[in-house]
Model the fold of this input.
Amino acid sequence: MARTGRRPGNQDTREAILDAARSAFSERGFDGASIRAIATSAGVDPALVHHYFGSKDQLFLATVQVPINPEEFIPKIFEQGIDGVGERLVRTFLSVWDSPVGSTAAALLRSAVQHEWSARMLREFLVTQILRRAQKELKVDPAEAPVRAALVASQMAGLGMIRYIIKVEPLASMPAEDVVRLIGPTIQRYLEGPLD
Done:
């Protein structure tokens, strides 16, 4: 007689959770998806989701398969204050893309351009995992914070696309510190300069 009830903890269970999470995040977004609903869809107890992934943020990162954890690098960019954040952000961005995980970042960006599902997931990642965290660090009018964060995101996505995907010269082969020097001030202006 076949056993009934919850799935046992194994690789199949982990994949079932990831599949359920992909569907939930894609259909309802990060905010609309709950651990309980994901667990129910996967046929597991919510505690098992926490066992495998720790938190909703970590589950989302596993679902999107991003090569970095914004929870770790965003506070470091802002820890010295707002001055120089533009340069530190560009430097961090380049160090990720120039590292072995850069190929994963490039694959995510390429996929987002080609597939609506990937675009939705990347958008959710940018908004919930990066932009919200950065907004908390900005000491600006809360009404301006989303606009400023979106402007920064547009610049960084454009940098990723031009330098690493399309490879437009001379930006594609420019030394990283030159890119930091040239683009950092634009990021800084988006963060604290006038918007009018």
The CA atoms of residues 36 and 46 lie 5 Å apart.
